[in-house]
Design a protein that fits this description.
The complex is a heterodimer.
Chain A lengths: L17 H49 L3 H5 L3 H11 L7 H14 L14 H12 L1 H5 L1 E2 L12 H8 L10 E2 L2 H10 L4 H5 L5 H6 L11 H13 L6 H20 L7 H6 L3 H8 L10 H21 L6 H18 L18
Antiparallel strand pairs in A: 1-2
Helix pairs in contact in A: 1-3, 1-4, 1-7, 1-11, 3-4, 3-5, 4-5, 5-16, 11-14, 12-14, 12-15, 15-16
Chain B lengths: L25 E3 L6 E4 L9 E2 L6 E2 L4 E4 L8 E2 L4 E10 L7 E9 L19 H10 L12 H5 L9 E6 L8 H8 L1 H15 L3 E7 L3 H11 L5 E6 L8 H9 L14 E5 H13 L5 E7 L7 E6 L4 H7 L9 E4 L6 E2 L13 E5 L1 H4 L12 H5 L6 H9 L3 H6 L10 H5 L6 H93 L1
Parallel strand pairs in B: 1-14, 9-10, 9-12, 10-11, 13-17
Antiparallel strand pairs in B: 2-8, 3-5, 4-7, 5-6, 7-8, 13-14, 15-16, 15-17
Helix pairs in contact in B: 1-4, 3-5, 4-7, 11-14
The chains are: A mainly alpha, B alpha/beta.
Bound molecules: iron/sulfur cluster (2 copies).
Chain lengths: 355, 518
């Protein structure tokens, strides 16, 4: 690829580039990320930095092996964004090797084996998350209670570093389960929903993120703001997130109405379990979602419904990753059959005809 | 008056960069030392040269005559001497040489005797369209379709509206803007003449909202003209595309493969309306036009009235030359214009702009793989999936690209404009359409050859059969004759004998007599 690439028109171009889109997405993620760094302190920061470095290294190596221009693709921001989303979907206390394995799976298996940027069928970060969840269920579901930075609870820098790399160092963490996991376990024990929810953080805390969970589950409000920013900047369309959250809310409300003691209400579904992160940042991954407006609506609805189904009836309380991967698999099919109507074909009745 | 406007799908909002020239009045360029006039400045069959090297011509004289159903004549833009008919640089990306008449202006600019003015209200519609055809008027928005043909559409279609396209949606271009500001009354008069010719009452003049002065000027000029309204349409590329403009104004969608006339609307460009006015009211053939010369690399951008055939070089010189090395020099707008190979190429009837753009303006960047972001899908005004079509073209699956709408693509470039990966989408489509046309032509040729061959074969077979039949007939006839002869022979013989006998007798007698006489 040469740097002089314009051969024919148009000789004007929108201020858009792959790098710009990726950068904007990362910008939108930044507030929520910063907030979760604050909440979970050093372990989360180490995990994030390690994954960032690892994805770049794996990406560079894969590009070099594939004989592609490393500098151009490495700086397009796609690998870093994948790493970022992966970090957001891991428990903040995950050990270093989880992060490293995740980065390797995401970049190598999730992306480069398919042919690199734009070629993968599945969202790489979700591929990694699901692979890790299945392989290391214990590490992937051990959450710690928030231990805000600079608070008394916050683990010490040195101790955290040592603990992160498994070199002893004691971190006084209170382990906990995410709210959906907790509800699932409690319901499984035969408790009613209200009993299960007793003592759990209120919805306000859920929305603001003072809760146990992976990095990206912790601040629905900041993530939603980031998502709205992306829609405003036209980096993503509103269709997938709105269709997805609306479907999820509708199904949750319906079942909550039918069985209030067994089914959490829509608010809990929307504000927990990475619903917001998934809807705005992961399901909207352009590479793995449909391209037509109606296809995107369908895709969003499918994600929403699957999230609810998996959370409610399958073994995993957080169904987001599975739901998105399943819909990723359906995307080629959706793109094949759901196409926009071409102008002038099968149009509404047109006016005067020939004499 | 018009009601609410309708929304079109897709489209983009490029930075219009019209401020470079929008406030600059139209200026006349001094007559260039030579003019290069290609025989084909329009869609259709090229014109047939009427002059030879050394001929003296007058301004407005026909130097090449229209040939065939769809064609347009070429007139001398000024008086002077014909230097020759040869192949010369064309203002195209390929720089292909076209058959061109080159003339040297004599500086006197002497007119030929012009056709008398027509009174559009009393003359018949055919007279108007004939005049427009004789004056060589073609669509000046860039399509260059001979206008007279569109003026005859009323014969076969039930038309309701004439739309004058003053949207000028391409960035940089301001030539129509200036025309509408400086010659509003004439443009409206031209529009009314065309309306009369095609037999419609309602005239809508559509202007994008980024040209408030033109809107005001045209409104004022149209104030006392019945059934003529000026409608402000949003600045939204490609608003100037016929089908999109009609949809905006009327909500009607032109069915694929049909003419806008099929839904009762005819669209003409504002500059074309002025050309029609000139032709009908003044007998003035189309010999010059307004061209916007602009772009970051041009020292002093201008709106220039220039005779056809003016080399682009002279236009740029008139603008103070180039102040920096351009990345590209284009004819037309940046969205759909064509890069040119040689600045010696001339401007034509359809040349609305000459742009010398800098690297920063063209914003050419690294091509990346498609990330399926669907930006192109949202931008496409025709409801196509550019990424999918491009993938098929790249795999050389032209038929399957056609199946998903390649032929509906209007080459507006909106998809390429938004693509974050800078994929030259529209380039794929233009390439594919060119290929298909070539293949189609090839196939048609093959079909024709096959047809001719079959015809020849059947003709030969027929000839053979005819020959055989003739032969058989002859044989049969002969046989018949022979049979008849055979049947007739005994009688004949006896008769003959009788005759002979008789004659013999007489002969004998005669001989006897003769003998006697001897
Ligand atoms: S705009 Fe470009 S990158 Fe985006 S889907 Fe279309 S072709 Fe692919
Ligand atoms: S060039 Fe063709 S495919 Fe691209 S936006 Fe225009 S009509 Fe659609």
């Amino acid at each position: 690829m040469s740097s002089r690439t314009v051969i024919s028109g148009p000789y004007a171009h929108e201020k858009a580039s792959v790098r710009r889109s990726m950068t904007l997405v990362m910008l939108a993620l930044a507030p929520a990320t910063a907030f979760s760094f604050y909440l979970f302190a050093w372990p989360a920061i180490f995990l994030f930095l390690l994954i960032a470095a690892a994805v770049l290294a794996f990406e560079a190596a894969s590009l070099a092996i594939a004989g592609k221009p490393v500098r151009i693709f490495l700086t397009d921001g796609s690998a870093l964004l994948t790493g970022w989303l992966l970090a957001m979907s891991l428990p903040p206390s995950a050990p270093w090797w989880i992060g490293l394995a995740g980065a390797a799976i995401a970049i190598i298996v999730g992306k480069q084996i398919f042919g690199g940027l734009g070629q993968n069928i599945f969202n790489p970060a979700m591929v990694a998350r699901v692979a890790l969840l299945i392989s290391f269920p214990l590490e992937m579901t051990s959450y710690v209670e928030p231990t805000p930075l600079f608070s008394n609870l916050a683990p010490h820098f040195g101790d955290s570093l040592a603990a992160f790399f498994g070199l002893g160092g004691h971190v006084d963490a209170v382990s906990g389960a995410s709210i959906l996991g907790h509800i699932k376990t409690e319901l499984g024990r035969g408790a009613s929903l209200s009993e299960a929810l007793a003592g759990q953080s209120g919805l306000g805390a859920l929305g603001l993120g003072q809760v146990t969970g992976s990095l990206g589950e912790t601040s629905a409000a900041l993530l939603a703001l980031g998502g709205i920013f992306l829609i405003a900047m036209r980096v993503i369309s509103w269709r997938i997130p709105v269709a997805m959250l609306a479907t999820l809310a509708a199904m949750a409300s319906l079942f909550n109405f039918l069985g209030p003691d067994h089914y959490p209400n829509a608010a809990i579904h929307l504000l927990s379990g990475a619903s917001i992160l998934g809807a705005f940042f992961i399901a909207t991954d352009p590479v793995t979602s449909p391209v037509s407006p109606r296809g995107q609506l369908l895709f969003g609805m499918g994600c929403g419904a699957l999230v609810f189904i998996i959370r409610t009836w399958a073994g995993y309380p957080e169904g987001m990753a599975f739901a998105i991967l399943l819909m990723n698999a359906a995307t080629p099919l959706i793109d094949r059959y759901v196409r926009p109507r071409i102008f002038g074909h099968g149009a509404k009745k047109s006016g005067a005809a020939s004499k | 008056m018009m009601g609410a406007l309708f929304k079109i799908r897709g489209g983009v909002h490029p930075d219009d960069r019209k401020h470079l020239t929008k406030d600059l009045a139209i200026e006349k360029i001094p007559m260039p030392p030579v003019l290069h006039l290609p025989l084909q400045q329009h869609i259709g069959a090229h014109a047939e040269p009427e002059v030879e090297r050394g001929d003296k011509v007058l301004k407005g004289q026909v130097i090449a005559r229209a040939k065939g159903m769809i064609s347009a004549p070429v007139h001398a833009p000024t008086s002077g001497t014909i230097l020759g008919l040869h192949s010369y640089h064309s203002p195209t990306a390929s720089g292909l040489r076209w058959q061109t008449i080159t003339m040297r202006p004599d500086g006197f600019d002497r007119w030929i005797r012009r056709a008398p003015p027509l009174d559009p209200l009393t003359c018949r519609p055919e007279e108007i369209s004939r005049r427009v055809a004789d004056c060589g008027v073609v669509g000046m928005g860039g399509a260059t379709f001979p206008s007279a043909i569109k003026l005859n559409l009323g014969d076969r279609h039930k038309l309701e509206q004439l739309v004058i396209n003053g949207s000028e949606c391409e960035p940089y271009l301001t030539c129509d803007d200036r025309l509408m500001r400086e010659k509003a009354a004439q443009v409206i008069d031209g529009a009314r003449i065309m309306a009369h010719s095609i037999g419609v009452v309602q005239v809508i003049i559509a202007i994008e909202d980024n040209k408030p002065e033109a809107i005001a000027a045209m409104r004022e000029a149209a104030a006392d003209v019945p059934d003529t309204s000026v409608v402000t349409v949003p600045s939204h590329y490609p608003m100037g595309a016929e089908k999109q403009l009609i949809q905006t104004l009327t909500g009607k969608e032109t069915p694929a493969g049909k003419l806008t006339a099929d839904i009762g609307v005819v669209v003409h460009n504002a500059a074309t309306a002025l050309a029609v006015h000139d032709a009908v009211r003044h007998g003035k053939p189309l010999i010059d036009r307004v061209v916007t010369v602009s772009g970051g690399a041009v020292a002093r951008p201008r709106n220039i009235q220039a005779p056809f055939g003016t080399p682009i070089f002279d236009l740029l010189e008139f603008c103070g030359g180039l102040k920096e090395e351009p990345e590209v020099i284009l004819v037309g707008g940046p969205m759909m214009g064509q890069p040119i190979k040689s600045v010696h190429a001339p401007i034509l009837k359809g040349t609305n702009g000459v742009l010398a753009l800098t690297r920063a303006e063209t914003a050419s960047r690294q091509v990346m793989p498609c990330i399926r972001c669907a930006a192109c899908v949202s931008a496409c005004p025709m409801g196509l999936l550019p990424l999918d079509m491009a993938a098929r073209v790249r795999k050389d699956e032209l038929d399957s690209a056609v199946k998903i709408g390649l032929m509906d693509c209007i080459s507006c470039g909106a998809c390429s404009y938004v693509c974050p990966s800078n994929i030259p989408l529209v380039q794929y489509f233009n390439f594919a359409k060119g290929r298909l046309k070539a293949i189609d032509g090839e196939q048609r040729k093959q079909r024709l050859t096959r047809k001719l061959a079959t015809l020849r074969l059947t003709r030969m077979e027929e000839q053979m059969r005819a020959k055989k039949e003739a032969f058989a007939r002859r044989k049969a006839e002969q046989a018949e004759k022979a049979a008849q002869a055979a049947a007739a022979q005994p009688a004949a013989q006896s008769g003959a004998q009788e005759a002979v006998a008789q004659s013999g007798g007489s002969a004998e007698t005669g001989a006897a007599e003769g003998g006697d006489r001897q």
